[in-house]
Design a protein that fits this description.
alpha/beta; five-stranded mixed β-sheet; Ubiquitin-like (UB roll); 267 residues; 2 domains; eight-stranded mixed β-sheet; Cytidine Deaminase, domain 2
């Protein structure tokens, strides 16, 4: 499946220019085994036969030689959203009882779920505050300076929370991007600072799951060093999240809700 083109606003210091970027597609695939929900997999559409076969093999659910009989269902936009598989019960291995009710995400993160969460669009995040785009670079520098584990190992991600004025609330590291975000939210809750958080920065790319965590924490601005997925952009638009990506070298691209951005300082 070809990457999807998304419009965005590319920010370069004091200028904002409309751009059209190709983003990696991320879509949910509901996998049902013998009529029961087995897994919700966040993936880039395509080669779903191979994906399912490899998933069932690696989870020690089915390792038979016979090809799987898979019936797919498509959404109105012709993207495959559901796969129904029938396997003789005698051929299902022990891994099934251990791995049922899990979700395989494109970038790890969600566990213990078989269905994608639905969000009430009426609960779209709203705020009158704005973020000065010239604060982005200092915020990412601040986060990077506190990535102790990354500087020592090169093998960890970071997430950080800032106020609307760019004041640091906390920085957390973890080998998983989603875990780092969870740690930040937990710290904010434990210190009664969740309502002060206006911008969440992350060191890697943004998938649907990162957006859902920002929404749950009611943090209206989400910014990342790397790229967003197509589903991350779609959900950000629906949920009222201002999504910025490619935040580096005094540049960034906003893919959703640019009305929260302003240029007032740092000329």
């Amino acid at each position: 499946m070809k990457p999807t083109l998304y419009q965005g606003n590319k920010i370069d210091k004091q200028t904002i220019q409309q751009v059209e970027d190709a983003l990696t597609n991320e879509e949910a695939l509901q996998i049902n085994l013998n009529g029961k929900a087995f897994s919700l997999t966040m993936r880039s559409p395509g080669n779903d036969d191979e994906l399912i076969r490899g998933l069932l093999y690696s989870e020690d659910v089915y390792r038979g030689q016979e090809p799987l009989q898979i019936k797919y269902s498509k959404a109105k936009d012709s993207i495959i959203t559901e796969a129904n598989i029938q396997i003789d019960e005698s051929l299902i291995r022990e891994g099934y009882s251990n791995s049922r009710n899990f979700l395989s995400a494109s970038s790890c993160g969600i566990c213990g779920k078989t269905e994608l969460e639905s969000f009430d669009q009426a609960c779209q995040l709203e705020t009158n505050n704005q973020l000065d785009i010239n604060l982005l670079e200092p915020m990412f520098r601040e986060m990077k300076s506190r990535q102790t584990t990354f500087h020592q190992t090169g093998g960890s991600h970071a997430a950080a929370a800032f106020t609307a004025a760019g004041e640091l609330l906390c920085v957390m590291e973890d080998i998983g991007r989603h875990n780092a975000v969870d740690k930040v939210v937990g710290h904010l809750i434990n210190h009664n600072q969740l309502n002060q958080a206006f911008c969440l920065t992350v060191s890697g790319r943004i998938s649907y799951e990162i957006v859902s965590k920002a929404f749950a924490a009611k943090i209206p601005v989400l910014a990342a060093v790397s790229a967003p997925s197509s589903l991350a952009v779609d959900f950000s638009k629906e949920l009222g999240i201002s999504l910025l990506a490619f935040c580096r070298n005094d540049k960034a691209t906003c893919y959703a809700h640019p009305e929260r951005l302003t240029i007032t300082s740092g000329a």
